[in-house]
Amino acid sequence: MQKIMFNDRFGLTKAALDLIKTMTRRIADDDGDIDSMEFKGFDSQGNAVFASATGIARIKPKYKVGEVVAVAQSYKEIREKYGIRSPIEYINRDRYEKSAGWNNKMFVRASLMPNHIRITNVRVERLQDISDEDCLKEGITKPTFDTFTFDGWKYFAYNPREAYAALIDKVSGKGVWKSNPWVFVYEFELVK
């Protein structure tokens, strides 16, 4: 089983577990090889196919439709939230308290995670093609009648896209929104 990490600094793990966040975007190509290419669709193996006059590129999505993925949380967070019902309580607890995964969810075992999501749809689009509705599925909230924000941000935006642009630049690095990369869009549901 794979795991997926959401940014805790901006409350995205909590938003996913609270069913506020039901969608996530992941950059399709980190080295920019496909920036000038056109997305052509998915091949029979499920790879995203990009093409230009000079060539073709195939990129495998990290997750596929129907796949159940563990939501990464630190062992400490799991123990504090679930106590004796958490998977780490049934095994050598001392071993996990001394492990790198105690405070850092990057180092946890997917098989020990109590929360899971099921991928319900995968598509490819340019980052800036996100709709206002999809911004809300990404964890953007509307705390007042005419403003939008996300957890951990002290400012407000007047539309969901502006708030999402600020969020993606904070999570993925300044300038990501402006560069408008190809992204995999994963829709998901929480599995109980």
Annotation keywords:
192 residues; 6 helices; alpha+beta; 28% strand; three-stranded antiparallel sheet; 22% helix; globular
What does this structure look like?
The chain is 22% helix and 28% strand. The chain is α+β, with helices and mostly antiparallel strands and 192 residues long. The strands form three sheets. The chain has a five-stranded mixed β-sheet with strand order 1-6-7-10-2. A three-stranded antiparallel β-sheet has the order 3-4-5, with no helix packed on it. A two-stranded antiparallel sheet has the order 8-9. Strand 8 and strand 9 form a beta hairpin. 28% of the residues are buried. The model has no long low-confidence stretch (mean pLDDT 90).
Short summary:
The chain is of the alpha+beta class and 192 residues long. The protein is built from six helices and ten strands. The longest helix has 13 residues.
Any chance you could write out the topology, listing elements then pairs?
Blueprint: E1 3-4, H1 12-17, E2 23-27, E3 38-42, E4 48-52, E5 55-59, E6 68-71, H2 75-82, H3 93-97, E7 116-126, H4 132-137, E8 141-144, E9 147-149, H5 160-172, H6 176-179, E10 182-191
Parallel strand pairs: 1-6
Antiparallel strand pairs: 2-10, 3-4, 4-5, 6-7, 7-10, 8-9
If you compute it from the alpha carbons, what radius of gyration comes out, rounded to the nearest whole angstrom? 18 Å
Shape designation: globular
| Structural class by helix and strand composition | alpha+beta
**Largest sheet report:** 5 strands, mixed
- Residue share in helix: 10-25%
Q: Give the averaged pLDDT, no decimals.
A: 90
The parts where pLDDT drops under 50 for at least 5 residues are none
Strand fraction equals 25-35%
The separation of the N and C termini measures 16 Å
DSSP, total strands: 10
Tally of alpha and pi helices: 6
Strand/helix succession: EHEEEEEHHEHEEHHE
Spatial order of the strands forming the largest sheet = 1-6-7-10-2
